[in-house]
Fold:
Amino acid sequence: MQTASPGTAANRARTTAADIARIVVEGLEAGEFSPGQRMVEADLCLRFGVGRQIVREALQHLHAIGVVALEPNRGAHIIHVTRDQAVMTLELTELLFGLVSRTAARRIAAGADARRLVDAIDALRASAQSPDPADYMRARRHLFAALSHIADNAELSRIMEQVRVHVMRAQFGFAAFRSGHAGELAEIGEAVLAGNSADGEEMSRAYVRRIREFLQQI
Structure:
């Protein structure tokens, strides 16, 4: 995983809070960060070559999407979820993923532009053969962003972003199944691309349901 080299003016100019938040999420899923780990502002400033304000903005964004907890006088740390919390989160995720897939399929059937979804499916297929887990993580985000964009429901997109999937993937080892998951998600994307709202919704819900059932058994 590539990170900003600390200390140079060029890095300070181009490394944004959004960049830092993205790198932390990718590092969490790749095992570089771990649930419960403290996120020390000074260390992050040094690592990314930025000032405290940018780091604090990044931590605020990570807090907003359920990755980081911010506690007065204790600073920030990556959240740790119990198995029961994860199961409940996945119950919600099943409904949301099904809804966004169904809505996107209906809009495609009505003529919505599906080029972003085509690109996401191609990226998922390619990531299944890649040894770099970051390729899958980017492709998966690309798929969800494409579905949310096509569904054109800002509130649904906002709620989906706040689901703690990033932490759960790191904490419970879901990332180890990325090759199989890439194929499944590509198939879901193809169902949506065909404008098949019923299949798109059911396949999406079944995908999350299998993850939840796996979690309940370990």
Notes: Residues 1-12 have pLDDT under 50 and may be disordered. The first strand starts at residue 38 and ends at 39.
